[in-house]
Amino acid sequence: MRDFFAPSMPVDILQSPVFRVVPVLGDAMYPTLRGDHDYVLMKPVTKYAGEGIYVLDNGIGIDFYRAESTMDETRQIRLFRDNPAYRDRFMTIAQFEARVLGIVVADIKVRNGRLLASA
Questions:
Q1: Which distant-in-sequence residues (6+ apart) come within 8 Å of 54 by Cβ?
Q2: Mind listing the pLDDT tens digit for each residue in 71-94?
Q3: Thinking of the domain 9-108, which architecture would CATH place it in?
Q4: Which of 9, 19, 67, 116 has the greatest CB tally within 10 Å of its CB?
Q5: Are 107 and 32 in contact (CB under 8 A)?
Q6: What's the pTM value of the predicted model, to 2 decimals?
């Protein structure tokens, strides 16, 4: 029965100078991440660190994207969202590295926003 539950995350991680808790904005990553409801635990990075969900600076705020290498001669990064209403984007590695803020290491799903707001 113990294997049924995911391992708990040490509280120190949430208060770490290495990680940041970032609110999810918008519907681009829905249903995986719910905008204005969920949070992510982000590790700041300055370069592509393999496939995953990244936080990028869009010039006026932040955006969440899944990123994967195209693995071809163009050496581009494909950026896409979980919501099919959004189109894919492609960036060179240099463009990606100029905008990347971090990689998502955990999602924080809010189950009762009312209780969270009253804390």
A1: 45, 64, 65, 66, 67, 79, 100, 101, 102, 103, 104
A2: 777 789 999 999 999 999 999 999
A3: Ribbon (2.10)
A4: 67
A5: yes
A6: 0.83
